[in-house]
Amino acid sequence: MASFLATYDFLLVSMVLAAVLALTLYLPLMAGQLSVASPGFYALGGYIAAIMSTRIFPPGPGLYPVSLVLLEMVVAAVLSGALGLAVGVPALRLRGIFLALATIAFVQILGVVALNLQITGGAIGIFGIPQPFANPIQYMWLAVPLLLVSMLFVARLERTRTGRALIALREDELAAAAMGVNPTYHKVLAFTTSAVLAGAVGAVSAHFINTWNSRQGTFDTSVNLMAFVLVGGSRTFVGPVVGGLVLTALPEALRGIAGVGLLPGWLAEFLRDGRLIIFGVLIAVGTVFFPHGLITPGLLRRLGRWRARAR
Amino acid sequence: MNRTFLLQQVLNGLAIGSVYAIFALGYTLIFSVLRIINFTHGAIFTIGAYATYALTGSQFGINGLLAGATLPFALPFVLALLGGSVVAAVSGVIVERLAFRPLRARGADPLLTLVSSLGVAVALVNITQYLFGAEPYSYPDPLQGLPTAMNFGTAAAPVLVRTVQVVIFGVSMVMLVLLTYLMNATRTGKALRAVAEDMTTSSLLGIDTDRLVLLTFVISGFLGGVTGTLIGLSVGVAGPYFGIAFGLKGLAVIVLGGLGDVPGAVVGGLVIGLAEAFVPAQYIAYREAVPFALLFVVLLVRPQGLLGRAQVQKV
To answer: By CB distance 3.0 to 4.6 Å, which of A37, A174, A201, B130 could disulfide with A103?
Structure first.
């Protein structure tokens, strides 16, 4: 167990953080809005943490205090939320493909700005972000509670009036509006909540990967998040979480399978080097055969019944 | 800003804008027929650029599976350009059959189709990288012997434009004329426009809509391939992911022109080309953000595009 944790420490933390990020894409999708803006807020959160920890609280000797990381997470969440509100109010009048395009543009613009500002370190970025933990696996103390809190939040949300309003908007915006659900208010709410969460994840990630630059939180991240949510499942919060965990581990798992030595050489080599090809094919095949993802509310209900019968 | 400098920037902007225009037409044609955004267009661009590179008889680098491979023959550049674009067109057809048709048969949500096409794009770009490696390539110079720049002004007040820019402008214009002819003066073009107007009705009127959808992908893929080669000629082929970045820029063009609007795509391309050319030198680093800033603003202010008419939402 200890050696497993030591070998895969980086991967395990990445999996948990990816699961939280997948939830940031799921939140607007609950209201039927495909927004890929959260990588932008993730990047912003990372920069805020990187700047605060290297410039405002210059690291002393020893480990960086965890309380300051928590403070950075709060600041990143608040500022991302504010930007989310400012972008969301005009942008969420758009729907469908137009919203997806606008949010792609948003991520691209943030990337170019980050590449050129002095405070973000330009093309080099910010490096040497101080470490609050001696060992990467200890980041689990931040990542796991963050995942649990956000899962609890979204699970509760699905059962409240607001959450049901979001789902009603996804199923039929016009009917929902006729029933007194304010579409813009609810969409902006979901979008801003997603921005808040993405900012907080960014703050943790910046410490975790020790360096932050304009290659973090780009269109690539958007594609990954879409894969997490659409392959995992887009109709219940369990889908994105499982999608984020499994698909982040998948490349390493494929590498492991390739390394066992039972497969013919060319196949092992393909599994090792062609991971992103498999990833792309999974997204395409998943959308054709499982339009709501692998984990659907129906599947969860069946699992629940099966467990009840087994008891 | 003096007059010759102004003129020079206008010519540069038009040259790059014309390439944006024919690239964006690839998106627009498919959107006008199927109401979907084909994200694989950027990957097709990459495939076209690599196929042309291979057909010129050039050698691939050391990183891919086909390290050091060359074709046993070498075509002159013009033929390689055509051949590379045909390869791109064939890839477009394969994408249609494998990724779009199954979704169409299921009547899938357009957003789902968008995501699926993204998946295919990621796969295609990474197959290219797997086979040919990630290093940048440049074509054997087809303009050897020609001066590197042409003077469109007088000897006293030179208006210099790179010869490559003139060539890509010329090729883009040829493509544009051919496409305009096809769309407006042939029976096939008429059928295409009918299918874009209303697929069900045109099918009832005896138009083979499936064949025309395929044709749309052929044309779109061909245009993508030509653009890949032209941009590769101008600034080099900067690795497989190059096409994805260019593909995103193309989205700005079609939104500016109005989704599915053919003349709009041309205007949008030229506007973005000119806007990029006129970014002041001290802000040149922000040039890459210009198309996306325009995209964002246009979506908020005029979502129907520059030339489009506002659509009334039907209930």
So the answer is: A37
DSSP string covering B190-240: HHHHHHHH-HHHHHHTT--HHHHHHHHHHHHHHHHHHHHHHHHHHH-B--T
| pLDDT at B138 (0 to 100) | 87
Q: Is B110 exposed, middle or buried (0-12, 13-18, 19+ CB in 10 A)?
A: middle
Give A43: exposed, middle or buried? Use CB within 10 Å, 0-12, 13-18, 19+: buried
DSSP-derived letter for residue A52 is: I
**pLDDT tens by residue, A243-275:** 999 988 887 887 777 777 677 777 777 777 777
The phi, psi pair for B4, rounded to 5°, reads -65, -40
Comparison of pLDDT for B309 and B173, the residue scoring more: B173
Instruction: Report CB contact under 8 Å: B123, A91.
Output: no
Say which residues have a Cβ less than 8 Å from residue B5's Cβ, sequence separation at least 6. none
Q: If you count them, how many residues does chain A have?
A: 311
- What is the distance between the alpha carbons of residues A127 and A116, in angstroms, rounded to a whole number? 16
Contact B118 A226 (CB under 8 A): yes
Question: How far is it, in rounded angstroms, from Cα A255 to Cα A39?
Answer: 26
> Does the interface predicted TM-score (ipTM) exceed 0.90?
no
Across all residues in chain A, what is the average pLDDT? 89
**Long-range CB contacts (< 8 A, 24+ apart) of A154-157?**
A154/A23, A154/A26, A154/A27, A154/A237, A155/A237, A157/A30
Nearest CA to A188 out of A20, A33, A23, A25 is that of: A33
CATH of B3-301, one of 1.25.40, 2.60.40, 3.30.70, 1.10.3470: 1.10.3470
Please judge whether A279 and B123 are an interchain contact, meaning their C-beta atoms are less than 8 angstroms apart.
yes
Token pair of A160, please?
A: 């409240």
For residue A224, give the amino acid letter: N
Q: What is the pLDDT of residue B314?
A: 58
Mapped onto helix, strand or coil, the DSSP state of residue A86 is: helix
Contact B207, B149 (CB under 8 A): no
| Closest CA–CA distance from residue B264 to any residue of chain A (Å) | 17
Cβ distance A112 to B288 under 8 Å?
yes
d(CA A179, CA A186): 14
Signed CA dihedral, B92, B97, B98, B102: sign only: positive
Rounded to 5 degrees, φ, ψ at A125 are: 85, -165
Identify the pLDDT of residue A227.
Answer: 86
**A179 class by beta-carbon count within 10 Å (0-12 exposed, 13-18 middle, 19+ buried):** exposed
What are the residue boundaries of the structural domains of chain B, listed by start?
3-301
Please state whether beta strands B149-151 and B160-162 pair in parallel, antiparallel, or not at all (unpaired): antiparallel
Quick one: which H or E segment has residue B160? strand B160-162
Q: How far is the C-alpha of A146 from the C-alpha of B251, rounded, in Å?
A: 35
Residue B286 to residue A122: CA distance in whole angstroms: 12
User: Which SS3 state, helix, strand or coil, does residue B150 take?
Assistant: strand
All structural domains of chain A, each given as residue ranges with its CATH number in brackets, are 2-310 (1.10.3470)
What is the Cα–Cα distance from B29 to B21, expressed in whole angstroms?
12
Residues of B in contact with A288 (CB under 8 A): 99, 102-103, 106, 108, 116
- Vertex A234: Cα angle to A232 and A235 (nearest 5): 120
Q: What is the DSSP letter of A133?
A: -
Residues on chain B touching A287 (C-beta within 8 angstroms): 103, 108, 112-113, 115-116, 119
